[in-house]
Amino acid sequence: MSRTGKSSRTGTRRTAKKRLQLPEVLDLTAAAPLAQSFITRRGADLTIDASQVRRVGAQCMQVLLAAATTWKTDGKQLSLEKPTEEFLEGSHLLGLRLEDDLAVGEPV
């Protein structure tokens, strides 16, 4: 801490890459909380961890694609890491090619 009682690390926190852990089930009830999670993380590079996802719904994929567009417009990086086979299969069944909109890491 500095003499003023404020942390000198605040600048580091603002520029650090943020993370978002996706829940196991991405269904209709998860869509609004997921959208809120993106809203609170807007303005910084973000890594989405999809290592726990077992079920994917269209509404959450729509939220994810809207976030990808927002991050691109803002000039920030949005990347997906550790997608499960279920996550990838669900996105392909919905006709989505996430790699067109996100930096997608290796599946788990």
Notable characteristics:
single chain, 108 residues, alpha/beta, Transcription Regulator spoIIAA, four-stranded parallel beta sheet, two-stranded parallel ribbon, 4 helices, 6 strands, 43% helix, 17% strand, globular
Any idea what the CATH architecture is? Answer: 2-Layer Sandwich
* Low confidence ranges: 6-13
Task: Provide the gyration radius in Å.
Answer: 15 Å
What number of structural domains do the residues give?
1
Q: What's the total number of strands?
A: 6
CATH topology: Transcription Regulator spoIIAA
Can you put this structure into words, describing what you see?
By secondary structure, the chain is of the alpha/beta class. It has one domain (about 15-105): STAS domain (Transcription Regulator spoIIAA), CATH 3.30.750. About 45% of the residues lie in helices and about 15% in strands. The chain contains 4 helices and 6 strands; from the N terminus they run αββαββαβαβ. It has helices spanning about 10-15, 30-40, 60-75, 85-95; strands spanning about 20, 25, 45-50, 55, 80, 105. Strands 1-3-5-6 form a 4-stranded parallel β-sheet. β5 (about 80), α4 (about 85-95) and β6 (about 105) form a beta-alpha-beta unit. α2 (about 30-40) packs parallel to α3 (about 60-75). About 25% of the residues are buried. The model is unreliable at about 5-15 (pLDDT under 50).
